[in-house]
Amino acid sequence: MTQPAPADLLAGLRRLLPEARVRGDADTLASHGKDWTRFYTPAPAAVVFPVSIDEVQALVRHAIAERLALVPSGGRTGLSAGAVAAQGEVVVSFERMNRILDFDAVDRSVTVEPGVITENLQGYARERGLFYPVDFAARGSSQIGGNIATNAGGIKVIRYGLTRDWVSGLKVVTGRGDLLDLNRGLIKNATGYDLRHLFIGSEGTLGFIVEATLRLTTPPREPAVMVLALPALDAVMAVFAAFRERLQLTAFEFFDDRALGHVLARGVPAPFATRAPYYVLVEFDHAHAEDMDAALAAFEHAGAQGWIVDGVISASETQAKTLWRLREDITESLAPRQPYKNDIAVRVSRAPAFLAEIDALFAREYPSFEVVWFGHIGDGNLHISVLKPVDWDAATFVAECARVNVLLFETLRRHGGSVSAEHGVGLVKKPWLGYTRDAVEIDYLRALKAVFDPHGILNPGKIFDPA
């Protein structure tokens, strides 16, 4: 268990915040020093819980004076160790900055503090007849600040885009302790560089998000869900094309039979009796009878081509939610096996060729490992979870996965893809950043870091190392 924080460090922080909001006990250090990544041992020096922008600024200025490293912490649902504090850093938890500050019905916008839970924001919008569309399985514990800091994607990107597309204003505290008020909720603002977008996806390395104004939209109308069984990997993108041609898709998700097996083992009912190597989940608006006709036409066409061997469509909202569990419960069902995760992306047009190549690669390089595939394949995003054999120690397992990563990422680079589609870089993806960003571009990233965080105190060591 982590040792208590040094008394002098705690005393300095308690001159800024009340004693109850500066923690150095072993349990809090262990719980708040990590995210969902399980290959790093948390070792923060302290955890602090600010409740205002002024307190965040005071903490940053204190960190500058005392040369303290600060790691931002939200819902800690990340999968790239972006919120891990393993080197004696001070964790800045935003869980108590969790207020919804303002709602504007005319602008269809809401202003929130960073600690607002994603699902709570979705419910707040729903109560007002509106919709916040960024959505994923961790909605019940992830926080808006973390969503913005990693430019979270999720299950509805195919229609609504990523978090970046819904942020109309940000307030951030930089590594200098300055407060920046960026874009102020404007739709049009042609006044030079839009710094807002630098902080979206920056993983807390340039500044801490302390307030966000988010756009809302009209809710989807009566979404229907289909789960389809596919006989072969090359049918996935063919089925996608058939449905996208006929329908406005809200989601198009993919998972293999190994993933389904782990979810069914948790008691989720099977969608149908047929088992197949691969499955897709399709969601679309069912506002009119013509929508269902189009869905059935796509199903019949795909079936006639041999791309589908079975399928089911939701007949109620309850059934739709049950079908979604087949996809959304995958991550939780795999957690006991300590999976090594890859979250990669290629352009949708490149997906068929890329999938074929890595299918052969994994069959060759992972003959004795269980490899589980799933993802938001309609936007080119694939999640790969390699499950640790029970008789392997973690270090040997990670080393073997890293060896195969070189082959995977070389293939990905040839296809112009990204080593991190939606989970950020953090510590996990840092060694592989060069497969997506070249050396010149990384030098520019370091230069930006030096401008906004000249003392190197904000989430140091994440994304890239100092030059």
Automatic annotation (TrEMBL):
Q: Which residues form the FAD-binding PCMH-type domain?
A: 40-219
Q: Which cofactor does it need?
A: FAD
Q: Which GO terms describe its molecular function?
A: FAD binding; oxidoreductase activity
Instruction: Could you list this entry's UniProt keywords, alphabetically sorted.
Output: FAD, Flavoprotein, Oxidoreductase
Q: Which GO terms describe its biological process?
A: respiratory electron transport chain
Please indicate if the UniProt record lists Flavoprotein as a keyword: yes
Q: Does the keyword Ribosomal protein apply?
A: no
| PANTHER family found in the cross-reference section | D-2-HYDROXYGLUTARATE DEHYDROGENASE, MITOCHONDRIAL
Family, according to the entry, reads as follows: Belongs to the FAD-binding oxidoreductase/transferase type 4 family.
This one is known as FAD/FMN-containing dehydrogenase
What does the record give as the organism's lineage? Bacteria, Pseudomonadati, Pseudomonadota, Gammaproteobacteria, Candidatus Competibacteraceae
